[in-house]
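Take a specimen:
=====
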Amino acid sequence: MEEEILASIDKKLDAMVRLLARGCVEGKNKTEAILTLGSLGLAPNLIAEIVDTTLATVSARLSEVRRKGKTQTKQVKKVESDE
């Protein structure tokens, strides 16, 4: 009985997360939506489902952002060390 209640709560929470996530990205293009949902900590497979794209596309976009972030961090550190 307790497991059934927990499963029901889990299902309802999952539906709420999906609805809220879709509301957060309404009007954004796919790349912006992917980045927004990724920054909120959603799993790539859930992002792909919400944005209606493939897992490979989501993974590629998130990877690009991480690479750019690392590059920018290195550039800032270099500028700071040059000063």
